[in-house]
Design a protein that fits this description.
The protein has about 180 residues and is of the alpha/beta class. Helices cover about 40% and strands about 10% of the residues. The strands form 2 sheets. A 4-stranded parallel beta sheet has the order 2-1-3-4, with helices on both faces. A two-stranded antiparallel ribbon has the order 5-6. Helix 4 crosses helix 5. It is globular. It binds pyridoxal-5'-phosphate.
């Protein structure tokens, strides 16, 4: 027991801050005001979209707000159901309740720890409007199968890639689905 307590913790992920990030932040708080207020956002959005391989990206204060706004943009609301894996960070599911819809928790796949497409399919009802597959711990679900089930049932996909920027599924970057 004593030995276990002395073991070094292995962090899931830590920040990687170099002088470059410190310089950018210093420049932003010093100069990015008024006419220049959006300079860093625009640069980031362009670079991010290019890296992920998509046409557009929008920067927001948090992934929680991105999921919240995505649900609102899709018109999901009270009485609707949204399927989400039962092992994830709370923010994958919480925004579903912000808009009055019901989160429905599907099982994960034992290999990827991400949404099982079979369980996803089992939980689809006439009330289901969307699915939120989560790229957990940098892993990714079987996106071909998830997309097939979503398409067959006319469901929107909101990919929660908060933990997987840099991951790939069949050559496509996490966050591009
Ligand atoms: C899978 C997943 N989704 C959503 C979030 C929420 O991100 P944020 O803290 O930026 O709202 C996190 C945060 O760790 C996460 O791991």
């Amino acid at each position: 027991m004593h030995q276990r307590l002395n073991m070094e913790r292995i962090r899931v992920a830590g920040p990687w801050i170099t002088q470059k990030e410190i310089d950018y932040v210093t420049d932003a708080v010093t100069n990015a005001w008024y006419g220049n207020a959006n300079v860093y956002h625009e640069r980031f959005e362009r670079a991010f979209a290019e890296y992920i391989g998509v046409r557009f990206s929008i920067s927001l204060p948090s992934c929680t707000s991105a999921i919240h706004l995505s649900l609102l943009a899709l018109g999901v609301g009270p009485g609707d159901e949204v399927i989400v894996p039962d092992i994830t960070w709370i923010a994958s599911a919480a925004p579903i309740t912000y808009i009055g819809a019901t989160p429905v928790f599907a099982d994960i796949d034992s290999r990827s720890w991400c949404l099982s497409f079979k369980s996803f399919e089992d939980y689809v009802t006439p009330k289901t409007k969307a699915v939120i597959p989560v790229d957990l711990y940098g892993s990714m679900p079987d996106m071909d199968a998830v997309r097939t089930v979503a398409k067959q049932n006319n469901l929107a996909i909101i990919e929660d890639a908060a933990e997987a920027i840099g991951s790939e599924y069949k050559g496509k970057k996490g966050g591009s689905f």
